[in-house]
Design a protein that fits this description.
Blueprint (H helix, E strand, L loop, with lengths): L2 E4 L2 E3 L5 E7 L8 E7 L6 E7 L4 E3 L7 E6 L4 E6 L8 E9 L2 E4 L3 E5 L2
Parallel strand pairs: 2-11
Antiparallel strand pairs: 1-3, 3-8, 4-5, 4-9, 5-6, 7-8, 9-10, 9-11
Length: 114
């Protein structure tokens, strides 16, 4: 299973970025897909997930600011990040879970700074 994450970069506080996780197969072949992040010196933290049933869930720290969605035409799961804060600075990793086996994409760095 190949997952390709993209969309990271440098953004000012209050700005927006959109991350994309592209799968080489249908996103609905997975039970869930989503994102984790790891800030410097901190443990990896779960951010959001998208289920094959179309349900979404978010960590409290990003609820109301981040939106996860699936695009079946592109086989991507995207993370729209708004109202970004310096505390959102981290390497973001996408993942896919199929029947308990977790696959990871490479990380994409998001830096929120003025």
């Amino acid at each position: 299973v190949q997952l390709q994450a993209s969309g990271g970069g440098l953004v000012q506080p209050g700005g927006s970025l959109r991350l994309s996780c592209a799968a080489a197969e249908s996103i609905y072949s997975f039970n869930t897909m989503g994102w984790y992040r790891q800030a410097p010196g901190k443990q990896r933290e779960w951010v959001a997930r998208f289920t094959s049933g179309g349900d979404t869930m978010y960590a409290d720290s990003v609820k109301g600011r981040f939106t996860i969605s699936g695009d079946t035409a592109k086989n991507t799961v995207d993370l729209q990040m708004d109202s970004l804060d310096p505390q959102d600075t981290a390497v973001y990793y996408c993942y896919a879970n199929r029947l308990g086996t977790v696959y990871w994409g490479q990380g994409t760095l998001v830096t929120v700074s003025s």
